[in-house]
């Protein structure tokens, strides 16, 4: 993933280029001088938790807010595993590649598997379990998946059920990284609901940062075994914010009127519009994505011209003529910018 | 430190009961839809860094923003120490008591020293260096101090110079936790400036969370040896926020017109008013504090009555009749509340 | 603890100055070319385990052999504690002082307590439990004691029973470091048996290195909760020796005919002879010890003269005239050397 | 690698089935009652170090003895890397597979590469360096290789020179795991000397355990940057044996008259004899090995019959008819056993 130089013209580099949704800003203003308890024990966090539990249809879920995805991953994983236990991840998994060894820094190996689409199946996991047969090797105890994956694909309900059943049968915890769960659940192909996740995974998190919040991920723990003294882990890793209200207010706003889903829908629609038009112009894609990240394959010359007006990452080389780029849309992506991009691509 | 039950009436429990200063909220609104690079490479962080370098009179300082104090402490300390090296702290030091073993979780021992006033002197440190004589013991390599300390005291310039000289002579890095640096630098007894800190410590951080920001601490690294690849450490510990702009904007607002010092002054004035009046009513104090935390000693009956209208921590017992309470003021403390507290105390 | 220069004349510096008891050497010769399974799955380890289980009167005890005491401590402690949990130790405890931060390197804080005699009581532990009240602090979960302690004292059965009851009542695991357990159990004041330890502590280890073996400590796990997958922890910390037979053979020899106790007795008798005669010559002691480490207080001049013929550690200064020295005897200490020392002291 | 059941008949399972070479036993007897300083500061360690420095033609080499290979690997690697730095290894590397996550337990990621023969080349390493471009990923800083590799192959001098040059040019430390260095240096194809290793790698270790010692690996540090305070790392990881003499005596015996090489030669000759005869009988091999581990491919029926008289590992399946087995010879392998094995194979 080489960095194209940052351009102020219009950025499709990621889904965190802007601030927060105006409702959130307004709620911050409205609550600003209310005195509240610190460290997540404020009323706003409590309200957000109650709203989420209802959406999850899981009144017993433990819910904790942290500031970012790497933090959520490292806290959940290190709180669950014993020292010699490992976590299984797709090779492309965020914990395996893009967290500067955060999981290893807590003492645990990531067992990675090659996948084509960034998703794990029992068939990917079985050989790892068979191979790790004795105490000379780590003991895999957790499966880490992402929805959407790092390459824009999503899990279907059937796939997740199969994984869930397999994990239960094999003594593995199933943990879902939902940094882009908003886009996943709003994908045109999605058949999963928030409440499905209450039953199908042991723990997961709902990404706020990439779907309209300034910062914030909501960790949801379904499995009672994993709930004990979780806040100790958060504090130790520096994740217990003195003004936890900042996280509670944002999640309350995102979920009280389903703003979270509206934002995910907007992001996906902008991506679809890009996809459909890019395809119509005769270009192919690295993966078929129905989420807010798309990976078109374009001629290098075209890429160079586009990069004068648009910011995006060059994902990988295809051959000497062509490369894959990544275009990311978000809650804040302007439709005019999408239209202009398509127009510009057509005219190159 | 026993928790008194939280009361919605008026809280002197801490300096993070409210949101952020209105200037910060306004700046968040104003910048909200500007697209910016992620992970602290945005223009607002850059502006904040430049303003801070000027205030520090240290154009070469490395400055990084993180979300909280425990995070700042654990990242700086673990980035500096080799595996067998330790950090020296007052027994009351935040890293020694109130971070759930965050430093040990990165592999390092905290060598703690009893102190009366929460401050370290060369005399406190020398016996530790003498004792740790060979490879059967950890090797102390860093000294951790806080200004203000956890019990409200501050370092005078002369004291810090002495520590600095001692540390240099003994191969120790000096690191200052400035979670409440605003209050320290605005204390009536203070003779230190921000730019003094550029010369007297190897690294320190400037606390935003407890002086008007939602979240945010600015880590300042003066010593060139400690600057290398610092962002890798931040990312690994989950401290590199995707929307780093949230931190940059706040520090820009706090420092561009010295708002940071105005807020510190307000907090201290409110604390002084409390102190002077409590003293005038004949009560003593655990420590003489000129910062925003004061520790009056009151009869238990009085405490009980006060706790019906005010929230505060009971710090420790003195005897069967009296206890120490902690009162904390902040940028947001209302003078009417202070007046009322004094009035109520007078009438008990 | 300053090092006196090493002297080839006669050393009372420690109990590991010589090799191994001749029975052990003979057994190594006798078994040398027998092919055996690796990593502790050999017949000699199995034989040693069976002998030990019988001595312990605990057929369900899990027993594992490792090469040294620091290794035993760090493996047991890190295998038991969750990331945010801590271990309570006397200030003088080996894990707190003389293991170069080995416990912290596995991520855990050591909560240390000042004691006079190196032993812990419920009264020492209670304030620590009371203080650590919430998730901003580590959660103490284990108590670490040593028998003999680092300053030569021993636990009486009643004391250990009291500790055991207290720990059970407070959700604390009790772990006993038995690096010098041989000397403790052979002390004239001892009323504990190996089988008592099966009931009174959750885990402990029996030190071979300091009682006649080349290397080797036998970790005994009584509490079923702590037994799971223990060998994974050993392997991860580099403690699973390919030729585990080396450890099994030694413990078989030490315990099959109670050689372990004979050696402990010899060491203690040599120490007693030293103590009684030093006392008879009018000198005092730092602690009253009935084990193989004694701490006489001698005039500095006397110490200087003795150090021309004997090697020992100067433990601490008493005043400008006198210091405490540490004399250690072992299974290999020659009675002539003891007699000569007494004679020399008498003639100074 | 499935375990065939252990058989007392004759074992080719590994090179640590027997005790130690008789010279070592004799030296243990001869030195047994000599009083010596503890923790590796004894005369025997010093003698062994001097002999080794001469063999290495590197009088400045730092040499330390530890008890096993996993311990050597985890201490060297964790002492060198900063928290966010990683080590590159072949997928088959011992640290990547067979150390129960020992490296990750010290906080560091292992970047693994698929190789055919277990050896690394610059071409294997380059893509890893290119991929790890910024602070969102670990920073590879060390290359870990084994000689012989885990699958019996060896490095030629030219290959090691190329790696050395590449590592220097790219700021990477080169570390060689020599658990089976004896067999490597005695291979018929070897053109490396011990003194070559002084110039070509930053650190390596010489395996004693698998070449005639009870326990013991000699860590050799060539690069001055890596020498500082190394014993602190050893102590912290539980590797500083109180009776370090046990390691010194063994290495003195192995090297004072080149016993180490005689034993390596014997092991290799026994393996060659097996290889040549197995090949002559028409069987193929997984890898071409000139060291003490060979990997013949045999019909499953044949394997089953052989396993009634011989112990060995079944390494992997080839197809439904055939499997790869691993045969390991050692300093103690009896030529009659080798002859009998060949005879038995011929008659199946």
UniProtKB/TrEMBL annotation, chains A, B, C, D:
It comes from Alkaliphilus hydrothermalis. It comes from the Bacteria. Belongs to the threonine aldolase family. GO terms for molecular function: threonine aldolase activity. Residues 27-292 form the Aromatic amino acid beta-eliminating lyase/threonine aldolase domain. Its EC number is 4.1.2.5. InterPro entries: ArAA_b-elim_lyase/Thr_aldolase, PyrdxlP-dep_Trfase, PyrdxlP-dep_Trfase_major, PyrdxlP-dep_Trfase_small. It is an enzyme of class 4 (lyase). Its cofactor is pyridoxal 5'-phosphate. This is Threonine aldolase. Keywords: Lyase, Pyridoxal phosphate.
